[in-house]
Specification:
The protein has helices at about 45-65, 100, 135-140, 145-160, 195-200, and strands spanning about 5-10, 10-15, 30-35, 75-80, 105-110, 175, 185. The chain is an alpha+beta fold. It has a single domain, classed as HIT family, subunit A (2-Layer Sandwich), CATH 3.30.428. A hairpin with a 2-residue loop joins strand 1 (about 5-10) and strand 2. It is globular, with a radius of gyration of 17 Å.
Length: about 200
């Protein structure tokens, strides 16, 4: 499922799987930032790739803080994930090596002083579930809404250009999906304006 919100030389900002959102939108929200190419370990990225990815991660986190009212007085935790993909019960079943199965991605986890979830208490470390319990644990959590994501993407674009000197021409323009309203790289929208995620659901 393609859930890309934004694309640039540093990689992509994507929505988490709707069944595996790690932080509810009311408690700060969850976005994922992928590097410009798949690697199992960040040291596999070239220096230029790592630099551009770092710019995108920083801009996305700052944008969440700047535009989400639920993060007033809060912060963002940056969590490089990939552990559940290595669980013996994950596909393909059995013992796995990190080099063969791990894919680097950065979860941006909004931390709100008024968080309602016992897993995201302010001033405490996050409480993640075991692999087998992950879907039940995440079931109450909702993705950030289209308008929230549109504000984040617009802020990311400005930060990349004004703070990190990323050329405006290298940033893929975004447009709202005609069906779900989430911002998407304009090149990913079909002629009727629907994103791949909505087309897959149709």
């Amino acid at each position: 499922m393609n859930s890309t919100l934004f694309r640039c030389p540093g990689g992509e900002i994507i929505l988490p799987d709707p069944k595996l959102v790690l932080v509810d939108r009311r408690d700060g929200g969850n976005l994922v930032v992928n590097p410009p190419r798949e690697v199992w370990e960040r040291s596999e990225l070239m220096a230029s790739e790592l630099t551009q990815w770092s710019f995108l991660v920083a801009a996305a986190g700052r944008a969440m803080i700047d535009v989400l009212p639920q993060l007033e007085g809060g912060c963002v935790n940056y969590w490089e994930a990939g552990n559940w993909a290595l669980n013996d019960a994950a596909e393909p079943a059995g013992r796995k090596t990190a080099k063969a199965h791990r894919r680097v991605h950065m979860h941006l986890l909004g931390r709100s002083p008024s968080s309602r979830s016992s897993s995201w208490r302010w001033g405490e470390a996050p409480g993640f579930p075991d692999f087998a319990d992950r879907f039940a644990w995440a079931a109450p959590y909702q993705r950030l809404e289209p308008a929230e994501c549109a504000a984040i993407v617009a802020r990311v674009e400005r930060l990349l250009v004004s703070v990190y000197s990323v050329g405006r021409a290298s940033v893929t323009p975004s447009a709202p999906c005609a069906a779900c309203g989430y911002p998407r790289p304009a090149a990913d929208l079909e002629s009727r304006g629907a994103c791949a995620e909505c087309r897959e659901r149709a």
